[in-house]
Amino acid sequence: GGVGKTTLAKEFYNKKRSHYSKCCFLYDVRDNADKGSLNLLQKELLRSLCGWDKPIVSVDEGIGILKKHISTPNVLIILDDVDKADQVYELLPDLTLLHPDTLVLITSRYRDVLISSGVEESSIYMLTGLTTQHSHELFCLHSFNRPHPAPAFQSLVHKFVEACGGLPLSL
């Protein structure tokens, strides 16, 4: 992690949400799944889709309810930090039922999770880290309020930038 998937997804969501009649950003799916809280995410998604306000006792119950409401038109759904295909299924149990003008964006560290979830290869975009030059500029702007360090710090900055491997969050 650390390349900026969630940050970009948030920015996309904030810029595009006004174009959709209903929107839902489900943060940190992986962590919620690990805590056994996927039914809470299901409820949040259903609240966004159709105003659902009843408890969802189990993930299986949530899957059944979602299948009935997933075809809602003009929806933007973001699933953040998915690490297993089952998580996509438990939140979007049948992708073929999605309305054609619904947009789903999924962030994941794992390409194979997306493919296993039924995402078309041509729809997958892999983020890469920053170039050394951009990493250097970002680090210096945050550390020195200018794009280049004083000569005395040049070597140290180079070591920091190298150690961060182009990950903006690390820089």
TrEMBL record:
SUPFAM superfamilies: P-loop containing nucleoside triphosphate hydrolases (SSF52540). It comes from the Eukaryota. Residues 1-146 form the NB-ARC domain. GO terms for molecular function: ADP binding. GO terms for biological process: defense response. It holds the Pfam family NB-ARC. PANTHER family: DISEASE RESISTANCE PROTEIN (TIR-NBS-LRR CLASS)-RELATED, LEUCINE-RICH REPEAT-CONTAINING PROTEIN. This is Putative NBS-LRR protein G8508. It comes from Pinus monticola. The lineage of its organism: Eukaryota, Viridiplantae, Streptophyta, Embryophyta, Tracheophyta.
